[in-house]
Design goal:
Length: about 525
């Protein structure tokens, strides 16, 4: 190999940006964005297919559910690094190490606040006490795991000199990745880039570690700050699908990745992400959390590649590059929104699914095709978004003990009532109920058949496509004894979709109960 080729390879490796996905950890901290274990495992598979470098699967000390999620993700992920978060305490770090034991590649991510606001009002610790705890916690983590990341929580509001001393302590204790998070979304691009340059130039040992960004979006600058951090020397970006996260969210993974890909002329850095899986991941995260993606959201929004202006349409017909800086195929959006109908065959349906990013097994394909045909009989035009909603609805359903068999609703100015039949553990049960509106009547009928104490925390309806025959996509979130479960369903009939979504949430709630054998639902509730 020539010296020139070797130098080019070394430069390429130095410009490689590690993508650290925190959708399952920081993303789940968004109020109401709880994910089940099964949903996290499916998301982990999707992220690994995307070739995400590091998957932060949870905060093991936070709950038994988080511990189990990190452990199970560690068992199934073989290519990506699986990461568990831990505070700077021995119990936290031990718990994370235990959860990561099955991982082929595991990482403990431990953190400690460094800003005066956090030192004085949260920790009540001096700078020297902070430095001592950094050394102690990172050393302990390093003794348990070969890959340790340390974060200076609220780094962007920390005195620069003390931040340097903190980073130096973490490096000396054995951390290989140093994260400088903009925890409260406070910084701006030039300031953040300068922060990394300062640390890399002035902290002993900085050339031996990887620096990382972690930016929140409180001022709408998370992606811009992340890119600036990389220009300042960071080589890892912590982000989440759809920008999910606390408050205004995190840097959006899809935006960061595509910025490097589209602007490779100016941003010399690159990632290893398979971008064609981006839209699939985005839609799955939206479905399982119940957080809709805004239509005009960059990269993954419904309108991201839509053109209505006559001038724009004319330009697109002449050459797509006139108004599109990337191809929709590059992010898995599909080139066009082709219409399929009741005469479409199984082969065409399979090809359409493949174009939309779905690879289904034969049984799942057969079920999806049957539902597609039923939908085509009821709906004049079946668009890509209809098919996506249909397949996502099918994939969201596991081993269901309860299913909707029949629903009849009467609504109007003279009152509302619902007649409902559910199949519960293989047996049909019926009930009638009134309510304050047709949806309330349907949900009341469900509670008559399956008595439970779960409270409705979210009921959300959105139209999948345009037109009066559009499918309704419904999300329902239930909470019982601190357990949160989300259900989803799509149907051309809004009330049917609502009933199925509620039942889906009930089924998911049942799956989370730790029982050695299922109990009869009708006799005792759950």
């Amino acid at each position: 190999m020539s010296t020139q080729v070797q130098d080019a390879q070394n430069q390429s490796e130095r410009d490689r940006v590690i993508i650290f996905d925190t959708t399952m950890r920081d993303g789940e901290q968004a109020p109401g964005a709880s994910m089940s274990l099964e949903e996290k495992l499916e998301l982990a598979k999707i992220l690994e297919e995307m070739r995400v470098d590091v998957i932060e699967a949870g905060f093991p000390i936070a709950s038994n559910g988080d511990f189990e999620a990190v452990r199970k993700v560690s068992e199934i992920v073989t290519e990506s690094t699986v990461c568990g978060l831990a505070r700077a305490g021995v119990k936290d770090i031990d718990r994370a190490a235990e959860a990561l034991k099955p991982a082929k590649r595991g990482r403990i991510h431990t953190f400690l606040s460094t800003s005066p606001q956090h030192r004085d009002f949260i920790l009540n610790m001096s700078q020297e006490q902070i430095l001592e705890l950094i050394t102690k916690s990172v050393t302990h983590a390093r003794n348990l795991c070969g890959d340790v990341e340390w974060s200076a929580q609220d780094a962007t509001r920390t005195e620069r000199d003390f931040l340097r001393r903190s980073v130096e302590a973490a490096i000396k204790a054995g951390a290989q990745t140093i994260n400088i998070p903009d925890t409260v979304g406070y910084t701006y691009p030039t300031e953040y880039a300068d922060m990394f340059r300062d640390l890399i130039e002035n902290v002993p040992g900085a050339d031996t570690v990887i620096f990382s960004t972690h930016c929140h979006n409180d001022l709408g600058l998370a992606v811009a700050n992340s890119l600036a951090g990389v220009q300042g020397g960071a080589r890892q970006v912590e982000c989440a699908m759809n920008g999910l996260g606390e408050r205004a969210g995190n840097a959006a993974l899809e935006e960061v990745v595509m910025a490097f890909k589209v602007r490779s002329d100016g941003l010399r850095q690159h990632t290893g992400i398979v971008t064609e899986h981006i839209t699939r991941a985005s839609r799955y995260v939206s479905a399982i959390t119940g957080f809709p993606v805004q239509f005009n959201k960059a990269i993954v929004g419904k309108n991201a590649f839509a053109h209505e202006s006559g001038i724009h349409q004319d330009g697109m017909l002449k050459n797509a590059s006139t108004y599109e800086i990337m191809r929709p195929e590059d992010v898995g959006q599909g080139a066009t929104n082709l219409v399929m109908g009741k005469h479409s065959g199984r082969h065409a349906f399979r090809d359409k699914l493949k174009a939309l990013g779905y690879e289904l097994g034969q049984n799942a394909l057969d079920e999806a095709f049957t539902r597609f045909k039923d939908l085509a009989d009821r709906k004049k035009h079946v668009y890509d978004d209809d098919i996506i909603a249909l397949v996502d609805d099918s994939l969201a359903r596991g081993a269901e003990r309860i299913s909707v068999t029949r629903l009849r609703v009467i609504a109007g100015t003279e009152g509302q009532s619902a007649e409902l039949t559910l199949t519960v553990d293989g047996n049909a049960h019926s009930a009638e109920s009134g309510g304050d509106g047709p949806v309330d009547a349907v949900f009341s009928a469900i509670r008559k058949i399956v008595p439970h104490e779960a409270e409705l925390r979210l009921f959300q309806i959105s139209a999948v496509t345009e037109g009066t025959d559009a499918q309704a996509q419904v999300s329902v979130r239930l909470e019982e004894d601190g357990r949160i479960s989300t259900g989803h369903a799509a149907d051309t009939d809004t009330l049917t979709a609502a009933a199925k979504a509620y039942i889906n949430a009930l089924n998911n709630l049942l799956l989370r109960q730790e029982k050695t054998a299922p109990e009869p639902l009708i006799a005792s509730g759950f």
